[in-house]
Amino acid sequence: MMTKPSRPSVRDRVRPIEAGERVMSAHFLGQEAVLALVSGELIVAGETDRRETLHDGGILDTASDGQSMVTGGDDGKVVLFNIKDGARTVHDSGGAWIDRVAMGPGGGLAWSAGRKAFAVGGRGPKDLAAVKSLDVISAVGGLAFFPKGFRVAVAHYNGVSLWYPNIEAKPQFLEWKGSHLGVAVSPDQRFVVTTMQEPQLHGWRLEDGQHMRMSGYPGKVKSFGWTMGAKFLATSGATEAILWPFSSKNGPMGAQPTMIAPGAKAGVRVTQVAGHPSSPVCAVGFADGLILLARIEDGAEILMREPDGDPVSAMAWRADGKGFVYGTEGGKAGLAAL
User: Mind telling me which InterPro entries this protein's record contains (predicted)?
Assistant: First the structure.
């Protein structure tokens, strides 16, 4: 009886980090890896790991532009953090939870509290009049800046509002019934895609409003992101990573997705995906703790982390692709030099 050959591994290049609690997100700020913890702390992982307390309570969402990161907390604060200057509060709602945050070009920041979205340029308001706000029909599900210009996609019930905060005009409304959560704008600004309360994605081609429905998932899609060159949108929610093609003018319409990195155990779903910044590779994390690095073109795999029953909750690549960091729901983490 033939045995399946073992995967090549880079486990020996991983330095363990003991987070001690659920890691909700991971980022690289320049060369430094940063892990955001649910308690309101950050771990800055360097030669020696250090902790920073950002919120008097839990962190609800984070975003990064590769140099700085912004966090929203249940203490009502929006906090901007970078390695050199540390943390500063750029907004205090007076207690309303900051559910979603985003960072955009030119230092743009956006955040939401309930049914209101807010946006400001220049890495925080010089005065309160600089903050623009938008009321939407439900709690904001997700925020994303367009790669160019000062424009924000605001996901909510029954669709997405495309908002120019500095222009006194009604936002463009992309309609599709249901509860829209996470939102992403393609780097070429031609497509907007949302995750939904149902186990599916929905998208729009902006040039003509054409709908794109991406369904067939056994579970809700909670992690999604663009691969190198935005050729694919990688997604969680199934027992392998589902990659929808976006390189043609029609996006995924009429095309079949690419599926890579099937888990080692039947029924175990993907929880996190992260596309490599400069190679056709996607990191895939699973609910049993397994992390694979999978090459998109042929599905070849490298083992990053053995499954141990602790779901992967956060992953990120360094901008040069030579560093990788991850965290789990149980408070384990690792930093890899590749």
Answer: WD40/YVTN_repeat-like_dom_sf, WD40_repeat_dom_sf
- Classify residue 33 as exposed, middle or buried by CB count within 10 Å of its CB (0-12, 13-18, 19+): buried
Is the pTM of the predicted complex or chain greater than 0.90? yes
For position 329, which CATH number holds? 2.130.10.10
Backbone dihedral region of 180: left (phi > 0), alpha (psi from -120 to 50 degrees) or beta?
beta
Amino acid at 94: G
Asked if residue 162 lies in contact with residue 151, where contact means CB atoms within 8 angstroms, the answer is yes
Domain span at residue 333? 229-338
What gap in Å lies between CA 74 and CA 96, rounded to an integer?
Answer: 7
- Quick check: is 223 in a domain? no
pLDDT of residue 178: 97
Quick: pLDDT tens for 20-40. Answer: 999 999 999 999 999 999 999
Q: DSSP string spanning 195-264? A: EESSS-EEEEETTTTEEEEE---SS----EEE-GGG-EEEE-SSSSEEEEE-SSTTTTTT-PPEEE---S
The values of phi and psi at residue 12, to 5°, are -70, -5
Residue 47 has pLDDT above 60, yes or no: yes
Residue 221 · residue 237 · CB < 8 Å: yes
Return the closest-CA partner of residue 333 out of 322, 321, 316, 320.
316
| Mean pLDDT, rounded, of the chain | 94
Cα–Cα nearest to 60, from 99, 109, 111, 114: 99
Q: How many CA atoms lie within 13 A of 282 on its CB side?
A: 35
Question: Does residue 279 sit within a domain?
Answer: yes
Rounded average pLDDT over 296-305: 96
Pick from 60-74, 82-96, 121-135, 247-261: least confident: 121-135
Do 197 and 207 contact (CB within 8 A), yes or no?
Answer: no
Q: Indicate whether 167 belongs to any domain.
A: no
CA 284/CA 128 separation, integer angstroms? 41
> Which amino acid, 86?
G
Band of pLDDT at residue 129, cut at 50, 70 and 90: low
Residue 269 in any domain: the answer is yes
Residues 6+ apart with CB under 8 A from 14: 304, 305, 334, 335, 336
